[in-house]
Amino acid sequence: MRPQVLKHLVDDAPRVMVVDGSKLVRKLIADVLQRELPAVEVVGCASIEDARMALEAGPVNLVTTSLTLSDGDGLALARLVRETAGQAYVPVIVVSGDAQQHLEQRRFTDYVTDYFDKALGHEALATFIRGYVQPETIPGATILYVEDSRVVAEATKRMLERQSLNVLHVMTAEEAFALLTAESLGRSSHRIDLVLTDVTLKGELSGLDVVERVRVDFGYGKRRLPVLVMTGDGNPLNQSSLLQAGANDLVQKPIEERLLVTKVLFQLRLARLNEKPMVR
User: Which positions are tagged coiled coil (predicted)?
Assistant: First the structure.
């Protein structure tokens, strides 16, 4: 089955706004984006006021912003984008060296769609943005999916399988650990590329236990085996504990297909960005 075309933006030639106080950073990001996406139009802005004028001049399809700007911060800019007529559903990506800390402390607001750690570099940022603009799947990549609701699991599996991803669905954390153990011992025909787990599971173990076991007991780092946790829990402390335990990212429930697919594909691409052959 061919992957479903899942466009996040309606334009074939999207306008991407890059907001950063450094002219050099804006140019570096623009150069990489234009190389990766030749049809893109990059709108560089140094401040919130520059961004306001650019938004008045015409719609944009995606916004990246640093957290610190000369006349405010990236969160204020995200709010401006949301409140600007016609911009309500534009992805707003915060680019920061402190993104993970801010995420763990739940400082980002509902106006922010996603975050990116600038330490990963501009090439990875271009890959990340392309995930929103022109998502590219990795056919055959294997997702270990832990979900105890068959109804939810079937709907989510369809979302992933539409992208030609192979989904191994299990109902409990214990079943997931059995598959991971078999792989670690070389007794599995699959290489598991990503773990997707609900935070609430039947039995004694939870999604948090899955994260902790993957990171501590199995010793897999975030690049080798990304873990995404699906949660409907809005408690900042609970969300923070998942990220501090080693989850790569959270996916809020109810699941929005485009965002789920974007996050999954980005983590898969990032894991393979500088991948070296593994010695088993």
Answer: none
